[in-house]
Amino acid sequence: MNNIEQELYKLSLKAYKKNEVPVAALITCNNKIISKAYNSRKSTSNPLNHAEIKAILKATKRLKDWRLDDCDLYVTLIPCHMCLEIIKEVRIKNVYYYCDNLKNINLKTNLIKIDNLYSIKNSELLTNFFKKIR
Description:
This protein is α+β, with helices and mostly antiparallel strands and 134 residues long. 43% of the residues lie in helices and 19% in strands. The chain has five helices and four strands, in the order αββααβαβα. β3, α4 and β4 form a beta-alpha-beta unit. The longest helix is centred in the C-terminal third of the chain and has 17 residues, at 117-133.
């Protein structure tokens, strides 16, 4: 096992001992570990406390930038859809994972688009904002 794998395993064991899903993540920049975390959803009653999200928050704080485009993420389990979207948002280049998720999650959430005057106003506001900053 290399250093990254050892760290991930230690973090996964910590989660396991705390009766959390034993998933761990760490982020590297220039081949140095800059953040690491493990799942803590159960103990914190916070559905956002996935290992990947916690590691991302620590890395952005350390680098003082929300963009992590020079970083790589290592995680013990393939990231869920929520985490993947955040990973894309922060622009992490590479995600290395060790296990597939064999659990089939049945989404029962309906996405319903509201199309009215406020949709147009919000769309214009977003368009104007991005025109202004680019």
